[in-house]
Amino acid sequence: MDTGIAGKVAVVTGATRGIGAAMVRSLVAEGASVFGTGRSPESVETARAGLGDDRRNVVLAPADLNDPAAPERLVGLALETFGRIDFVINNAASFAYRSLAELTPADWQELAQQKLVAYSAIIDAARHQLVANRGAVVNVAGIAGCVPTGETPHVGAINAGILSTTRFYAALLAADGVRVNAVSPGDTDTDRRQDRLARLEATGLSRDGAERRLSSSIPLGRAVAPSEVAGVAVALCSVQFASVTGINVLVDGGRHVHYSVTQ
Ligand SMILES: NC(=O)c1ccc[n+]([C@@H]2O[C@H](COP(=O)([O-])OP(=O)(O)OC[C@H]3O[C@@H](n4cnc5c(N)ncnc54)[C@H](OP(=O)(O)O)[C@@H]3O)[C@@H](O)[C@H]2O)c1
Q1: Would the CB of 94 count as within 6 Å of ligand 1?
Q2: Range of the domain at 99
Q3: Radius of gyration of the chain (CA)
Q4: How much is the pTM?
Q5: Is residue 49 part of a domain?
Q6: Would 3 be classed as within a structural domain?
Q7: Does the beta carbon of 5 sit less than 6 angstroms from any atom of ligand 1?
Q8: Which of the residues 40, 141, 250, 254 has an alpha carbon 20 to 30 A from that of 186?
Q9: Mean pLDDT of all residues in 117-124
């Protein structure tokens, strides 16, 4: 099936690990070139070393999205490197678990900066290229933006904001042929999940018990693989989805229907 992705250039934030690294692999497999970012020079270096043959089509650079100047700088660098930008995949975010009692205004502000502010600023900075190339944007939100999960409220509120932002830009840019969609992962097997498992183990559960606890609210019975989220994001960039804009695809093993099937 022709995806129309070969020869195109994608900017992927948070490309050094987890879902973003899987997106880089999927895009390169479709014949795209990728300008990817990570937070620190060290993580970028480690990720670059792990790229293998994909290195030919991928340039990684550090860009800390807590810095308000980062979006414009990274888009400028991507353009300087590859000469065009067709796709933006906004994915980077850091998440330290906080109980409701531990949550501080700084936690809200940091996640809002990385997701709401930086995602929008990257789209704005790349807008001219996206319009020129009739490109596509995929914003990575998260299931907590749609249904309450065990995480603290700032994650859900900010991901819900990403869904609103996605619809806003979809409406704004549709007349220019630019599509803007969101993908919302559920519990996905990245470092973040390993942290959750470790926290559960610290309460006395065995590794298997911790796995069972996390999977018990997922109707399909297992965590999502990063490549599965990447597959949906890449599909949303594909010409096969040329009439799809402003939507959110949940990639969550059915987690959003969990309550309806168990109560
Ligand atoms: N995993 C899940 O279960 C899950 C569920 C729902 C939603 N999501 C969403 O999916 C996206 C990716 O999650 P993930 O689990 O793949 O995350 P991850 O494995 O923790 O990787 C996060 C990526 O974002 C980068 N990053 C973190 N903070 C940054 C900052 N301040 N500036 C620039 N880059 C930063 C990291 O760079 P370094 O390597 O340099 O730190 C890394 O590349 C996030 O938007 C997350 O909210 C994930």
Answers
A1: yes
A2: 9-262
A3: 18
A4: 0.97
A5: yes
A6: no
A7: no
A8: 40
A9: 98
